[in-house]
Amino acid sequence: MRALVRLLAAALCLAGAAPAAAGPVLLVSLDGLRPGDVAEATARGMTLPNLSALAAEGASAQGVVGVLPTLTYPSHTTLVTGVAPAEHGVGNNLTFDPLQTNQTGWYWYASDVRVPTLWQAAKAAGLTTANVHWPVTVGAPGIDRNLPQIWRTGSEDDRKLLAALATPGLVARLEATVGERYAQGIDETVEGDANRVRFAAALLAADKPQFMTVYLAGIDHAEHQAGPGSAGAKAAIAATNALVGQLVRAARAAMPDVTVVVVSDHGFHAVTTDVNLVRPFVEAGLVTLDAAGKITGWEAEPWLAGGTAAIRLARPDDAALVARVKALLDRLARDPAYHIAAVLDRAAVAKAGGATEASFFVALEPGYETGRDPAAPVTQPSSYKGMHGYMPGDPAMRSTLIVAGPGIRHRDLGVVDMRAIAPSIARVLGANMPSAMVKPVF
After folding, report:
1. How far apart are CA 284 and CA 154, in angstroms?
2. How many whole angstroms separate alpha carbon 24 and alpha carbon 36?
3. Straight-line distance from the first to the last Cα atom of the chain, in angstroms, rounded to the nearest whole number
4. How many whole angstroms separate alpha carbon 365 and alpha carbon 313?
5. Own/partner pairs for 436-439, CB < 8 Å, 24+ apart?
6. Do 17 and 383 meet the contact criterion of CB atoms below 8 Å apart?
7. Taking a C-beta distance cutoff of 8 angstroms, is the pair 327, 284 a contact?
8. Is the pLDDT reported for residue 68 higher than 70?
9. SS3 annotation, the chain
10. Between 91 and which of 65, 85, 136, 389 could a Cys-Cys bridge form, CB atoms 3.0 to 4.6 Å apart?
11. Pairing mode, if any, of strands 145-147 and 63-65?
12. What local confidence, expressed as pLDDT, does residue 21 receive?
């Protein structure tokens, strides 16, 4: 009989069923944290007691292979859906805006997500949910207490916007409890993160949500500005380690049986050079500019993504236009001035799980990023010192996964597919995620 029970339990696990003892989960994302920053902290000149303790207590991955492109918004949507951008619909940070009419609008709105999320799965399992600043959460179904990520100008009107889009009354209630104003969405500093952690801790203490997501941006901000491995990046990681400690203590005080999952969305490359991929499209007559350099028309245009760029066509099924763009990209790939590592056609993009709207993807060599000024020379010194967005197969783009909690034994998870994280969390919650495409890993 016992042997039969074990066989049935194994079969249920393989089928993606929930573990026998479900419990609450705190999911914390540290944007841009590289797995080696924790595993090799001492060698890299850092002391990270909270992150190291979680890794020593529970399970951790050698690295997480992300999605195409390795950007924040596509990755964070994969982290809560278990599917690639081709399925979930968030293919970039910024919406495709060839005529620049959306004023640098990002994928803030959950209505763009085409598949169910962990918040919805948790709600369907009868659990309470909360969120602090996770990307693509404006109007997200399934979140009981929601402080979504959004900004426009960083002005006082942004505060009114957030209060209107958050769970009614939540901002005012938490500000009264914490005794300070909630950080502006545009604030990506460690100091902004520290403010959000205080709000998250207050939310944990008061509401005890059984599934809660918290997003911190300060590491990514520092790595863009100063480069990965820089003194500024290390200082941001050390400060964020302290914030993780605050979150873990608050979560365990509220729910002693909580499982803490720490993730990141991508790794980083140091960069030195901007590459202008728009200029050759202008020269080929595929993009038109006015006298001020503003785009006024397009037939094909790069959708910039840091270390890569999706190529969008106004008529993706126009064979003549496809051939014309392919000829241009083939020529650019042969020109060493553009530092192109690979060009993916539509079939290759689909195989990699990239945005369905992309007819091609251009991948740059490490050290080079897509420049944002269509009037710039082919190459010029980069505005950032660090960048991501490169192909997910690049080991430098691997992200972090650390899991600690009841029933999580200490072990090396190896190299993990990012799509496996959401169904793994669903199992811990006792929830069901049938749309996930990869089996759980914890």
Report:
1. 38
2. 28
3. 26
4. 24
5. 436/16, 436/81, 436/82, 436/83, 437/82, 437/83, 437/84, 437/87, 438/82, 439/14, 439/16
6. no
7. no
8. yes
9. CHHHHHHHHHHHHHCCCCCCCCCCEEEEEECCCCHHHHHCCCCCCCCCHHHHHHHHHCEECCEEECCCCCCHHHHHHHHHHCCCHHHHCCCCCECCCCCCCCCCCECCEHHHCCCCCHHHHHHHCCCCEEEECCCCCECCCCCCEEECCCCCCCCHHHHHHHHHHCCCCHHHHHHHHHCCCCCCCCCCCHHHHHHHHHHHHHHHHHHCCCEEEEEECHHHHHHHHHCCCCHHHHHHHHHHHHHHHHHHHHHHHHCCCCEEEEECCCCCEECCEEECCHHHHHHCCCEEECCCCCEEEECEEEEEECCEEEEEECCCCCHHHHHHHHHHHHHHHHCHHHCEEEEECHHHHHHHCCCCCCCEEEEECCCEEECCCCCCCCEEECCCCEECCCCCCCHHHCECEEEECCCCCCEECCEEEHHHHHHHHHHHHCCCCCCCCCCCCC
10. 85
11. unpaired
12. 59
Matching residue, tokens 């080991």: 395
| Number of residues written out for the chain | 442
The dihedral through the CA atoms of 213, 63, 306, 234 has a sign that is: positive
Residues 6+ apart with CB under 8 A from 75: 66, 67, 265, 266, 399, 418
Residue 2, classified by CB atoms within 10 Å of its CB into exposed (0-12), middle (13-18) or buried (19+), is: exposed
Mean pLDDT of 314-335: 98
Query: Token pair 């803490």 is at which residue?
Result: 260
- The two three-digit tokens of residue 411, written as one number: 């072990």
| Low-confidence winner among 3-7, 116-120, 331-335, 391-395 (lowest mean pLDDT) | 3-7
- Alpha-carbon distance of 141 to 106, in angstroms, equals 19
- Residue 344, Cβ density class (10 Å: 0-12 exposed, 13-18 middle, ≥19 buried): buried
Structural tokens at position 81: 């859906």
Predicted structure pTM score = 0.95
Mean per-residue pLDDT, 76-87: 98
